[in-house]
DNA sequence: GAAGTTAAGTGGTCAGACCAGTGGCGACCA
DNA sequence: TGGTCGCCACTGGTCTGACCACTTAACTTC
């Protein structure tokens, strides 16, 4: 009311600055020190504002290089999911259930849309669950879905570590190569869902 | 995997602390200085982590008083995020595709878990798409899924208005009453997906 | 007992220092 | 000439200590 918080003010000023300068994805923002200087606020306030912009997915910071506009029209609605974090086992169950459902959904979509190029990309992925599956989700060509999955996976990693045998990755890749939705789903259920049901 | 940035680590540590202490809405968190002391990081890092939690709607800070758990149910973030949406066609496609997929997922889950009480609740819902479907999603008993759907729906409403004939609601309710996943899915595809494919 | 004062604690902000990466520029060498 | 190496300026990341504005509660005073 009386004095609005500086970092909020700064947030909007930077946001306006981005709009007025017409910054495009990949473009660089002024350095934190210069922003602080220009807006006549402390660097810490600038940083708190930048954190918000980062969380919203508008910018990306790279140490030693600078702050950049993030690629893709990245409406970060999904971050809202963060509000679910309020404690409890029930939320964990919900998280696992939702994540598995979405992953199966992605497998289906991937089978429909998979290009040879994307297939190659998946093949080259390391045999860790998150890296492998990220490429599968990318193959769906649905950026929103990717965002949702990334958030779910991020939370998931703080709860469990999922390691699967090499056969899983090999069989899954074979199924994807054949674009066989049924086969991919079956493999997923056999390995992942079985393992997660035991973990509960 | 390993996040080198302190403020991200701190974010998760505070989050864990909230969980383990079982903090409820309205409860107070330790002061910034105490958190910094306890987690052995600088106060500025604590503040950047708190900013993130605040943006996610988990906490609320009151100058001179402290930091408190926030009651959930706040839509303020959605409004904030709303100012960032620059709707491209690709994003629309992703939104519609994802929302429809999730709704079908919810139909499946609802058929598995639907209680008579929830069924009644659905029956009493008005015949508007969002109100009807919200109750369906609620019937899945998965709060995370509900959160995701609410966000998707919120944005969806800024793009389209979906009106369906009464038959849809009646047929759907009949299918749910029978707990028939196949039937419900078929009705969904017949009415919703058909209509949306034309809208594109 | 009530009103006013004080002191301690809290979030908000700033300035300055240092660390750790990045990248460009110039000196040096083959 | 062409390449390489190393220096240095600049960037984000972090910490510290200081001060302000505000709240609360204990204390003093009438």
UniProtKB/TrEMBL annotation, chains A, B:
Membrane-spanning residues: none
Q: Which Pfam family, any one of them, does this sequence belong to?
A: GntR
Q: Which domain of life does the protein's organism represent?
A: Bacteria
In terms of InterPro entries, this protein maps to: TF_FadR/GntR_C, Tscrpt_reg_HTH_GntR, WH-like_DNA-bd_sf, WH_DNA-bd_sf
Which SMART domains does the annotation name?
Answer: HTH_GNTR
Q: Which GO terms describe its molecular function?
A: DNA binding; DNA-binding transcription factor activity
Name this polypeptide is given: DNA-binding FadR family transcriptional regulator
């Amino acid at each position: 009311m009386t004095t609005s918080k500086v970092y909020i003010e700064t947030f909007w000023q930077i946001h306006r600055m981005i709009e007025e300068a017409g910054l495009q994805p990949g473009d660089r923002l002024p350095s934190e020190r210069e922003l602080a200087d220009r807006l006549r606020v402390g660097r810490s306030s600038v940083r708190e504002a930048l954190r918000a912009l980062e969380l919203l997915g508008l910018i990306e910071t790279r140490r030693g290089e600078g702050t950049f506009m993030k690629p893709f029209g990245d409406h970060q609605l999904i971050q809202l999911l963060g509000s679910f974090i309020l404690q409890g086992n029930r939320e964990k169950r919900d998280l696992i259930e939702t994540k598995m459902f979405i992953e199966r959904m992605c497998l289906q979509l991937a089978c429909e849309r998979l290009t040879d190029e994307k297939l190659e990309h998946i093949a080259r992925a390391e045999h860790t669950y998150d890296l492998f599956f990220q490429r599968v989700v990318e193959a769906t060509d649905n950026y929103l879905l990717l965002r949702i999955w990334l958030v779910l996976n991020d939370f998931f990693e703080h709860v469990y570590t999922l390691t699967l045998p090499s056969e899983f990755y090999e069989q899954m890749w074979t199924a994807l190569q054949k674009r066989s939705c049924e086969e991919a789903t079956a493999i997923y259920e056999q390995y992942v869902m079985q393992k997660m049901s035991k973990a509960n």
